[in-house]
Amino acid sequence: MAWLLIDNSNNRTKLALGDKNSLSEWRVVTPTSELNSTSLKKLLEGVRFDGVVCASVVPEKAKLLSDFFKPVSPFHFLTHKSPHGLKFDLDHPEQIGNDRLANALALRETHGMPGIAVDFGTAVTFSVVSEEGNFSGGVIAPGMAAMTEYLSTRTAQLPQIELVEPATAIAKTTVAAMQSGAVIGHRGMVREILREMISEIGGKPKVIATGGGAAFSAPHIEEIDIIDLDLTLEGLRLLAGKAFFK
Q: Fewer CB within 10 A of the end CB, N or C, for the chain?
């Protein structure tokens, strides 16, 4: 039995297949802005599945996905009320992004507790799973691209830049100075947030990086233990196997 797993984020939408044992090799990644019923039909041509589990942080696309899949297949949106077994050490679990719930579930089941999932996307999110396996809170901060886009739109003389590894911290041009500030500065922000969180948790929690920017940023941050680019999809697979499509 195969399940279709959808991670619908602000910039990219990832689709994968999985079953009770693992994720399959079949993957599709498409810009979220290009996601519509026509593109979905094309992406899924010839793909067979028995149910759909989706995490979405884009309301407009969430409705599209619901309208597209519900008439033809068992379909479930991940929320704080889903039967994932997570408990919450906070007051408003309904405010937690669905992708963060998937990350927390996968972290708990595959990497151990306590732990921190760091998702490098449009925003960089930090989600904590306690030693007891509960979702205990976290941090939401600007992503690297968001920082550079803010500078270029809010200042008259600063351009849009490509995010690349700076050759040196002390830059000789405006573009290089912006790249240094974005890349080195963003990593410094992530590093300091992790240090404070680890201090509050105590001991040595496992820190797992995921998301589109993880491969670029995480290797330079010593507090991060593992890069797991499939963390969100794995959380969706685990949810499907636990509750809906056994």
A: C
